[in-house]
């Protein structure tokens, strides 16, 4: 029975639409900050970033024992690049949102992703889809760059690294010899090593606080384990440009979560932004489907 149930789970993983995995990733992308709020009052932002990465690395180590992928021909250069990107990206993201509104950071983060989507938009239909999604994100985030200059700088660094994350993650997901999730686990272990001199010092005061430790584990699970794993499952069957376009769903998902969980009704402009994003994603067509 156990073997049969395992086979059923594997078939479900392979047959579920890749868009469904992206939606799961998008939802947890915004549940993670709910745990981070508990930590910001107790730990410096770099300490929060380190706790997120370190707890996720520990989970991957126990779950996947990812170092075994090194014996199976894993691309070491790809793993080193991925780990470095994860460590610095997460650190600069928290430094940015500590100084700027989340909507501004989200809009800046979307800018280089647009470039990736444009590079893969080989038809007029897909360019129209991209234009709709960009317009929707603009309406949703109400971006303004008149905030803390250092925060803006961190946001742009985070944005560039997020585009790098998409490139290396997609390459790992498309790798046929080693499961992408195992490569992700190894990259996360490398990220923990890179992030330790950056933020471990700031997390030391929290290591004697059970609430902070629990919140740190919550951040790791909801921000770096579930969304990154579902990213791998989506990217394995989704062109990179399609994934880049679907990133436009992130601010739309945040708005929907605000309606359902927090009863935060959107304005007419925000509702129009959500509609444009959804229409844009719906209009887009993969090259394989075409």
Describe, in short, the structure shown.
The protein has 290 residues and is mainly α. It is 79% helix and 0% strand. The termini are far apart.
Key attributes of the depicted protein:
290 residues, mainly alpha, disordered N terminus
Percent strand equals under 5%
- Unreliable spans are 1-9
Q: Can you give the mean pLDDT?
A: 82
Number of domains: 1
Series of H and E elements:
HHHHHHHHHHHH
Alpha-carbon distance between the termini?
41 Å
Question: Main beta sheet, described?
Answer: none
Which assembly state applies to the chains in this document?
A: single chain
The Rg value, from CA coordinates, equals 19 Å
Helix content: over 70%
Number of helices: 12
Structural class: mainly alpha
Say how many strands there are: 0
Shape: globular
Structure characterization notes:
This protein has 290 residues and is mainly alpha-helical. The protein has one domain (19-283). The chain is 79% helix and 0% strand. The protein is built from twelve helices and no strands. It has helices spanning 2-15, 18-40, 45-64, 76-97, 102-120, 124-141, 149-173, 180-203, 210-235, 240-246, 249-262, 268-283. Helix 5 crosses helix 7. The chain is globular, with a radius of gyration of 19 Å. The N and C termini lie far apart (41 Å). Mean pLDDT is 82; it is low at 1-9.
């Amino acid at each position: 029975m156990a073997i049969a149930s395992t086979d059923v789970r594997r078939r479900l993983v392979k047959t579920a639409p890749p868009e469904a995995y992206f939606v799961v990733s998008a939802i947890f992308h915004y549940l993670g900050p709910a745990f981070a709020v508990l930590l910001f009052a107790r730990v410096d932002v770099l300490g929060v970033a380190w706790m997120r990465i370190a707890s996720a690395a520990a989970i991957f180590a126990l779950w996947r024992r990812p170092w075994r992928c090194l014996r199976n021909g894993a691309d070491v250069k790809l793993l080193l690049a991925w780990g470095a990107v994860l460590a610095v990206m997460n650190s600069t993201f928290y430094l940015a949102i500590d100084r700027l509104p989340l909507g501004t950071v989200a809009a800046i983060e979307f800018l280089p992703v647009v470039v990736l989507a444009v590079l893969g938009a080989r038809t007029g239909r897909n360019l129209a889809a991209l234009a709709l999604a960009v317009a929707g994100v603009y309406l949703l985030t109400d971006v303004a760059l008149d905030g803390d200059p250092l925060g803006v700088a961190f946001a742009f660094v985070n944005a560039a690294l997020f585009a790098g994350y998409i490139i290396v993650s997609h390459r790992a997901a498309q790798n046929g010899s080693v499961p992408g999730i195992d490569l992700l686990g190894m990259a996360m272990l490398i990220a923990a090593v890179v992030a330790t001199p950056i933020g471990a010092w700031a997390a030391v005061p929290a290591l004697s606080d059970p609430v902070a430790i629990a919140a740190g584990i919550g951040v790791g699970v909801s921000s770096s384990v579930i969304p990154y794993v579902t990213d791998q499952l989506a990217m394995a069957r989704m062109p990179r440009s399609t994934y880049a376009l679907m990133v436009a769903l992130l601010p739309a998902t945040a708005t929907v979560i605000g309606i359902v969980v927090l009863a935060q009704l959107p304005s007419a402009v925000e509702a129009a932004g959500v509609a444009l994003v959804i229409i844009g994603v719906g209009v887009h067509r993969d090259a394989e489907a075409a």
